[in-house]
Amino acid sequence: MHIDPSFFIKYHCWEELLIAMVCISIAGRLLAVPAGQGSSPALAKNSRIFLVRAGYLLLALSSGLHAFIHIRGLNLNLLYLTLLGYCFALMTFIIAISSTRPQTKRFFPFLALLLLLLLIPGIYESLPDFRKFRPLVWISIAFLAGHVCILHMAAFYRVHSKRVLLSAAGFFLICLSAIFLFFPAAMGSSIWLYGHFFRPLGFILLWFAVNYRTVADMGGSILYRALTAFSLLTALPTIIFGSAIFYVNINAIDIAGKRMLIFLVMLGAFTSVLIFGFGLIVRLIQPILGLKESVDRLVDEGLDRRIKITSNDEIGELSNAFNEMVVKLSGAVREKERLYRLAATGELAATLAHEIKNPLNAISGAAVYIDKNHDGILIKEFIKIITDEVSRIDKLTGTLLGFAKPIYPQIEPNDITALIHETVLLLDKEAREQGILLQEQLPGDLPKVPCDYNQIKQVLINILINGFDAIEASGKMTITARWSEDAVEVLVRDNGTGIAPENMKNVFNPFFTTKTRGTGLGLAISQKIARGHNGDLRVESTLGRGTTFILTLPHGREK
Hints:
Elements: H1 5-29, H2 40-72, H3 79-98, H4 121-124, H5 130-159, H6 162-181, H7 190-209, H8 212-218, H9 222-248, H10 259-301, H11 314-373, H12 377-404, E1 412-414, H13 416-433, E2 437-441, E3 449-451, H14 453-470, E4 476-483, E5 487-494, H15 501-504, H16 522-532, E6 536-542, E7 546-554
Parallel strand pairs: 2-4
Antiparallel strand pairs: 1-3, 4-5, 5-7, 6-7
Helix pairs in contact: 1-2, 1-7, 2-3, 2-8, 3-5, 5-6, 5-9, 5-10, 6-7, 10-11, 11-12, 13-14, 14-16
């Protein structure tokens, strides 16, 4: 069946006009009023929208001009202008998607104005015959459209938008059509029909897929830049070399006779690049997205989330560093909260102590007056009870005031061995009365420690008394020490009941106690004193096996 060639010319013109209208419609959608003009992310987003809009306008102008050239029967060398316009538009898409600072690339679409030089008769008439060199332009369009397709696949893996995936399918069809149109086939042939069927179909898919939100959410990514660099590194030398061979053998090469072989080679090359690109997407972007999602969930789920480490490469090292950062950040947040509670508790304790002392003085004075001016056994018994309880409350208020006031240690070099020995002698009698063996095992070369002797002694007393309450009969407490280049560590170990895991985080909180007696301030004050010496007091414990308190004090002497 013979079909008039003019029919295919008309079909091609309507095809180009349809593509032009689709691209103008898409560009119109991207004219939505942007928000947040002042911020840097908003500027990057608006610039990305501008570049994509400019790319579709370039496609529209190129297709419209392409149709006009065929309708008016103008010199076919003018088609160089339209096809190079397609290349400029596709490169604009690549820049818009892959650049992290698209605001610095807004000038790029205006470079297409240089193509207007091809409208000068003396220039376009001197160019090689377009019908012979058309394959070189179409293979460039195939490469660029395929690259835009891969970038959209990467963006889909990042934003999980079906519209982005549909855009990738549209650019894939445009790439496939360019591969068909690479062959110098006659108008109306099957190769020509395939190319001119897939091309408008690809743009129709883009019409359904592209909107303002789709483009705005794509953003810049290190993966996009990696894919762009890979494509340029591998494809450009091949295209340049192939173009040179094609130019030298333009009359001898039988492209039409080997079209199936060439088509399969080109399609296989593109498919291999597509598979490599997708593998790079999965391999590179998944761990990075895991990092991003973990950071996003920190706000909602707190600092307990960790990243699963699946590799030993840079991504694995980054994930491990992130986990370490979260652990340290979690500790810093807990410490900040503890210090805040400590400060608030200190203020409350000071207020209560002052408020309690005044009525206590009045009660104590009244008790003394009654004791001197009234006789009677019952009165004397009640006076003793009042006096004892007032003394106990007075001691408690003294403890509260001691906790509330700042630590101002009187620093001077002290023999830490002598300090420990004196503390053990002081509490040895109480330990033996409770059936506890209290012993010290100290090295003979401990350096002197700059500290407040009485304050550090009070810390050790608080730790030991706290341990007495946790040890059953026939228990044992051992004080050891070790030193490094910058600090001395005093370790107080017991074989008591240990501390429950849920209580470990509260050990140094003020007023926390599991005992029936005591204020719960001893360990809080002890840690405050240790940190006032630029040291620390920490605890390690295993439930049912015992507890170790570690007092760290800097000594400033080389080992």
